[in-house]
Amino acid sequence: MSVVRVCFLGTPDFAAKHLQTLLNDDHYLIVGVVTQPDRPSGRKMQLTPSPVKELALKNNLPVLTPENLRKEPEVFEQIKSWQAEVAVVVAFGQILSQDFLDSFSFGAVNVHGSLLPKWRGAAPIQRSIEAGDTVTGVCLQRMVKKLDAGPVIGERRVQLDAEINATQLYDRLAVLGCELLHVELMDYVRGNLAPLAQDESLVTVAPKIEKEESLLDFNKSAESLHNKIRAFSMGPGTFINFQGKRLKIHKTKVVDSSSNVKPGQIAVVDAHELLIQTSQGQLSLLEVQPESKNRMVIADFLKSHPLAKGQSFHE
């Protein structure tokens, strides 16, 4: 079979890993790349290209950076001129039109960070961990106009323990997503693999994470707080208000115990341990970050913050 001509659409590092996989595979020819425009980044807010754009330019690939692909017909015409047979979409960040999806002989396929139909939407990796899932994975789906509703070409599964955070899972799923492009995508293009329709009765949604979700509420269970902290590690993080300032919470563990103190009050404290009572169980804080300071283990935090049992730990 001849080499498959690919139009790649993606933006972050997760997508760049998949682009590199296609570049390394002699079965594919990347004829062009579409990514988000350069965005301000860093303390000086300098315009910075996306990881996908950087990789594309390094490999001398044509790159387009539309602000809104659906509203820029001239960009669409350029993409069609590449004569790609399939579009591979990985964390691109824009909604694609039906005309775009229909403009490739093998359609457009998408690498999605969940086991569809579970966790359709913008934040599947984070929402899966937040929900306490014990199994998740990554899917390759043929795209349709409805968000993440296309038939599934292939999947890879991952078992989750109670400690893995979203950043770690993100890295694992990137490796597995690349496998899907190397194996299942080629089988699909060759006609050896038929996509399977999703079961609409099993759909769950993974909405975008809003910044106001980052504030922890000790009136919830220790397990739910621990899951949120793990889930939001990839951004925007979690915090509490402590002594008039934000205290970021980076790492915790759940302690199945109770005390006569109220949720949000200190249940146990010594030189190396700080347990906060919740509505169910206690949350042991392992790594925190005071405002304008570096991340630190709880023992170092306690050296400069004398605390006592029963004291309210959040405001």
**Which class best fits the helix and strand makeup?**
alpha/beta
Spatial gap, N to C terminus: 65 Å
Number of strands: 15
Order of helices and strands: EHEEEHEHEHEHEEHHHEEEEEEH
**Share of helical residues:** 25-40%
Give structural attributes.
single chain; 315 residues; alpha/beta; Rossmann fold; Methionyl-tRNA Fmet Formyltransferase, Chain A, domain 2; 2 domains; six-stranded antiparallel sheet; 9 helices; 15 strands
Summarize the structure.
With 315 residues, this protein is of the alpha/beta class. It has nine helices and 15 strands.
What this model shows, in words?
The protein has 315 residues and is α/β, with parallel strands linked by helices. It folds into two domains: 4-202, Rossmann fold; 211-303, Formyl transferase, C-terminal domain (Methionyl-tRNA Fmet Formyltransferase, Chain A, domain 2), CATH 3.10.25. 25% of the residues lie in helices and 26% in strands. It is built from nine helices and 15 strands. It has helices at residues 13-24, 51-58, 73-81, 98-101, 124-130, 166-182, 184-189, 222-231, 298-303, and strands at residues 4-10, 28-34, 39-41, 46-48, 63-64, 86-90, 108-112, 135-142, 152-159, 239-242, 245-255, 266-269, 274-277, 282-290, 296-297. Strands 5-2-1-6-7-8-9 form a seven-stranded mixed beta sheet. It starts with a strand and ends in a 12-residue tail after the last helix. The model has no long low-confidence stretch (mean pLDDT 96).
